[in-house]
Amino acid sequence: QSESDATQMDVLIVGAGFAGLYQLYRARGLGFKTRVLEAGTGIGGTWFWNRYPGARCDVESLDYSYSFDEKLQQDWTWSERYATQPEILRYINHVADRFELWPDIQLNTRVARADFDDASNRWTVRTEQGEIFDAQYLIMATGCLSIPQQPRFDGLSDFKGHWYHSADWPEEGVDFSGQRVGLIGTGSSGVQMTPLIAQQAQHLTVFQRTASFSVPAQNEPLDEATIREVKVHYAERRARAREAVTGHYLIANDRSALSVNDDERRAEFEFRWRGAGGGFRMLRAFNDLLSNPQSNRHAADFVRSKIREIVKPPEVAELLCPKDDLPFGAKRLCVDTDYYQTFNRDNVALVDVKASPIIRITPNGLQTTEREYELDAIVFATGFDAMTGALMAMDIRGSGGQSLREKWATGPRTYLGLAIADFPNMFIIAGPGSPSVLSNMVHSIEVHVDWITTLLETARNKAVHRVEAAPAAEEGWVRHVNEVADKTLYPVGNSWYVGANVPGKPRVFMPYVAGVPTYQKIIDGVANNNYEGFALA
Ligand code: NA7
Q1: In 339-438, which ranges are E strands?
Q2: Strands of 358-362's sheet, edge to edge?
Q3: Which residues sit opposite 350 in a β-bridge?
Q4: From ligand 1's centre to the CA of 188, what distance in Å?
Q5: Which residues contact 100 (CB under 8 A, 6 or more apart)?
Q6: Which residue in 4, 87, 98, 455 is deepest, having the highest Cβ count within 10 Å?
Q7: DSSP character at residue 285
Q8: What is the pLDDT of residues 92-116, one digit of tens each?
Q9: What angle do CA 353, 356, 360 make, to 5 degrees?
Q10: Cβ proximity of 360 and 145 under 8 Å
């Protein structure tokens, strides 16, 4: 295909996960000629790729679902409090069927490059498959956790067994029966996988570099009465979610952890530990857990006391206890089912690879500075190049040929987490600088898509051809995002929130921590103020 016969689109969307599909639905609803390009052989994004055993969402299913269509939320019935990956994938496919999205979704198509043309105010988008698109608007629905961090261990190619990454799991699944399995990584993915692999494998060795905080999901099947009750009041549940900091309703305690005595504090943490509501529930036990180091310490000590209660061998319990340099919640809390309990099994071992780092993979297993471990299979749950990885994987050139990779070489900069100065007519859904990963992602996605859709409609009505964030507005937003984050303990955690997990990645705190309602007020204010900070021409 040549540029002159490029496929013409009004709106081109990259990525067919929750964000891309809803954006397609909305843009098409306004009569825009729209197409979604998706690299995978199926839709679902995160929920398409992360098929590892135990993969589940850590936000409750009744909240982690679209709210835009009343009939959809009435018709669909979730089976468990926390949905498994296969169930979420079924839901996403149901949505695509129901709203007849398929004709405008193109699978097996990975975007390689996008160039903005200042004369026509349009994007030329090239795919790895050699296709060329010409679109007025380019919307990046590329996800925050979509580029797996590939294992960089010497000797991997000589390993005689099989190896897997959590985010690139074989579609047909893996049977670990009778095998000695090594698992590297103890973030959310490793924590979810550990109990299931332990049940199946002959032996599981978990290689831990940094202990995570994990709280029990208290997952259970959703009974009919609960579902009925939620469905009768679904609109109210969604309205409460919109007012909640994380975009899903939770009982938030508006007291400081330091304003109560030891017994009261423990009772509050116990209440949260036993109830549902995932990691977010624990973070809302008091109002200053993420701003006051002393309050945070109380939460951290509570979880450590639980680990010591659950895990029988004291030395294993100590190793599983997160150290003081990781504040509670400063890295995404893990939400588990029987994670700590699994270390009481005879066929499970925990190895401290901070004390004895991994040197290399050997043909028969893995070598640390201490000894060699013989393994039949290795599982990497080593995380993602988060939030910026998918955007940086493409060669995106904005106004005057400006390269996004160069612009972001020292860290991501956006206006409202939605737009980038010098990259006109391009929007990011749940990008760096928006609440995104610190919220119920589906809710944040709906907030962004609705806002972008209104902007597209306004631009069309006003015969605007070019929408562009002003550099000064971007500058101000970046400053604001940092100021808000610096008042919290979030930046202290060495996590993917700051890019600390990817060697060489610039250290910048990426999500906007002030919460979804505050954020929504700001972006609505921008829109109501004639898109303040944007140039519309
Ligand atoms: P995470 O949370 O980034 O966890 C990755 C884990 O892998 C973490 O424990 C890392 O230890 C470990 N890791 C990474 N590289 C290595 C090497 N080279 N050696 C040993 N250990 C390593 O990714 P997840 O997939 O679990 O979860 C991502 C998000 O998905 C999660 O937060 C939820 O929002 C859903 P480290 O901490 O860097 O020492």
Answers
A1: 348-352, 358-362, 365-368, 372-374, 377-380, 395-397, 426-428
A2: 358-362, 365-368, 372-374
A3: 206
A4: 7
A5: none
A6: 455
A7: S
A8: 999 999 999 999 999 999 999 999 9
A9: 80
A10: no
